Structures are given as structure tokens and as C-alpha cells.
Amino acid sequence: MAGPQTMFDKIWNRHVIVQRDDGQCLLYIDRHLAHDGSFHAFTMLRQDDRSVRRPQQVFATPDHYSPTDVRTIDAIENDELREKVAILDENAKEFGVPHFGIDDERMGIVHVIGPELGITQPGIFLVCGDSHTSTHGAMGAIACGIGASEVAHVLATQCLWQSKPKTMRITVNGTIGFGVTGKDVILAIIGQISAAGGAGYAIEYAGSGIEQLSMEGRLTVSNMSIEAGCRMGIIAPDQKTYDYLEGRPYAPKGAEWDKALAYWKTLPTDDGATFDREVTVDGDAIAPMVTWGNSPENVIQVTDVVPDPAQEPNAERRESMLNALDYMDLKAGMPMSEVAVDRVFIGSCTNSRIEDLRLAADVVKGRRAVVPSMISPGSTQVKAAAEAEGLDKIFADAGFEWRHSACSMCVGLNGDSVDPGVRTASTSNRNFRGRQGPGSRTHLVSPAMAAAAAVTGKFTDVRQLMEEK
User: Count of domains in the chain?
Assistant: First the structure.
């Protein structure tokens, strides 16, 4: 009889078709998500005269290149963007792949609509040609990003060669405090283990701090696992997961639901199972976080001061800190709460779900944005839900720009970008140099913290604004 197993091992082993002597495994892929950057893979299929092996297990939507100001292909003014969105539509039709086009009510950022539509489910193996595919691990799935040639391989075979990673469990103990979100939790984790701390591992997040997060908060945590250096971040399914999934379009129904639920309940890690590495995080100590440099690991609490490179004993890291402060135009010792922002972006696959928008709306209601601020909901359904609740009016009254769904200013491929030297409070996942546009200065924060920056013009401890209400 097999001994205690981790959740990751249970799911991985179930999907192994064959394992080579060198350890490489051929894995069966349950779900494959494709976006408008997948045109290279479809071109490879066409050149090799191949078809999509199981088209009904592939789901496509335009998000990276889709503009946030229009909702039809013909209305896209930029020739390159219009071509990218149109090509996905054409490829989906040619290869018989389900497609949620720019004018479809199910359209949205691929990592938002997967869970939202019930495509993502516990126990499955899911891939997408995007690094933040780790998002879907919050549903109790193994999910990872793959390259263009791998996308073509999965399209053609429904299988993928991969090496099995080691396993790490990050246990967040204690209670997540007032004004603290899943974004703050994952930023605190990355700050503790570093941006390379998860390299070579599949991370399982556990502990009371993770259990108390909503599904939206867990999706944010898993989303940024890639920023900790790993490709997969998984969270055990529980009643919150089941309640979130039940009734969604692609979720099992009737007897199939009962059968699936029985299987899902077997997935959590067995007592006594061992991990290659264990990390403990003090959830009680996590506060609203802000990044200061050009890596998600360059993060501090909003109540802290910008760190001093002179205090860093490692010469290489000290030089990196100096370069980051120069690029970000910050000085060591500056209180983070005194750093002014030039604009605010709320959106991306990290923080654009309905709960994220509710948190931001709670902060801005009755207040006015003092810097240009833009919101791009994570999907057309999220946008509709927000409008049904009147959140769009709250944002409009506060002076925010209310847009359509797309990856938008997270990566800046669709025309939404930041000018050189502009400092942005962003709910996205990467603060790399030029990520939001050449010369842009990006600070990662939660939706509530972004909203606080919008109405104060600087990084402000959102708990102060929440307490005032």
C-alpha cells in the first residue's frame, strides 16, 4: 500500500502516461487555455498538416492584444491588434476550438474566465501559453504555463513532456488582519523566500491564513506563485472551492457532480506526507504591502521606509538595490507613505475579479481620485456583475475610467501603457523595468491599496481610510 501522499503527487501521478529513464514524464492534459498570443502554435499545426487532438478540451479567448475601449473586431483601430484578435477567431473556427471572442459575454482574461466558467476544476492538469497559468492551482489543480512549441504539442496530442518538480509547503499561520488581502499575503511570502525561492518546486499553500482567504484571494496567491520562481502553486480544495464551482457552466451537473465531489475530497495532502521543503509564514504579521524596486521580492509594508542598500551585506544584491532605487527614483529611508503616485491601474489576472472591485469601490465611495485612474474588469461577466451592483457608478463618480476586459496595462500589449517616468500603483503581478511601458515605474499593491493611492495621490495605508468609514 502506498504511503501518505501530497496533493501534488496524487494529481501528478494520475496524469502520468509514461516515464522515461531520465525522469521525464509524458502527462495527459485535461484542459488547455489559449489566448490571442497562441497564433504561432496554430501556425505550427497548419505547417505540419496536423489537427487539434481534442478541440473540446481547448478554450480560447483574446486578452493580451484585445483593446479595452471597444468590443468588436472591426472597431479595433490598430492594425496589429485587430489582426491578432481576428487570427484567434479564425484559428478557433478552423480547428473547431471553443472560442469566447471579443464580443462574447464569456470573454475575459484567460486566467479569470477559467475558474469563472467552471473550466478549471480540482484534480485536473491544465496548461496555457502564459506564465501566470499558476492561477488555476487555487482550485486544487496542477496548472502551469508552457511555451509556443509546447502549446502546439498539446494541441496536437493532448499530452506534454515535463520533469516532475520537487515539492514545497508554505504554511501561513495565524489570522489575516483587517485590510489585508490575498495580494498582501503573496507579496509577503515572496518577500520572505525571494523571487527565486520557489525555483524547482511545486508549492502547496496551507495553514489557517490560506484557509480563511476567499476563492478570489486564493486565486491571487496562486497567480503570483510564478513570481516566487516556481511554475505551480496549488491550494487544497475545500467547501469554499465546491461552493464557488457549483452551478458554473462547465462544472459537473447532477450525478456527475456527486461523483466529482467525492473524488475532489480525496485530493488534500494526507497526514504524514512529506515535502522536500517546508516554510512557515506568520500571517498575523502581514500588513498592506507595496513593492519599491523592480522585482516582486522588493516589497515592504506601507508603514515601512525604503530600505537602505548600505545595510545589505551581499555585494551583488546591494548593487541591484542601488540600481532599482535609481530607476524608481527613490531614496533609502523615505517613508513609503510619502511616495507620490502619478496614476493607478486596477485590473489584470491577479486582481480584477468582482471581490477585487468591491474592495476598491468600498475605499473610493464618497471620495475623488486625484490622479488618473483606470479599471479593467477581469471578464465581461465581472464587468456586468459590477455594473449590476452599481460599482461602475461609484468609480465614475470618483473620477475613475471604467473600461472593458483585457490584460490591459499589466503588460501593455494592447495599447494601454504608461509613459516614461510615470509612477503607477498597479494591481498587476510584475514590476519589472518597462513592464507597463518603456521607462515606467510600477509598484505592486492590492486593489484596496490602489484605490487608496488614487484618492490620496500617494501610497496610503488603506486601513486608515477604511477606519474613517
Answer: 3
What span, in angstroms and rounded, lies between the C-alpha atoms of 187 and 315?
Answer: 24
5 belongs to a structural domain = no
Give the CB-side neighbour count of residue 259, counting CA atoms within 13 A: 6
Can you give the CATH number for the domain in which 415 is found?
A: 3.30.499.10
Q: Are residues 277 and 328 in the same domain?
A: no
Q: List, as one string, the DSSP characters of 327-344.
A: HHT--TT-BGGG-B-SEE
pLDDT digits (tens, 9 = 90+) for 419-466: 999 999 999 999 999 999 999 999 999 999 999 999 999 999 999 999
Q: Does 152 share its domain with 201? A: no
3-state secondary structure of 70: coil
On whether the pTM is more than 0.85, the answer is yes
What local confidence, expressed as pLDDT, does residue 1 receive?
53
Range of the domain at 334: 289-468
List Cα–Cα distances, 162 to 20, 159, 165, 372, in angstroms. Answer: 11, 10, 9, 44
The residue among 257, 258, 259, 261 whose CA lies nearest residue 237 is 261
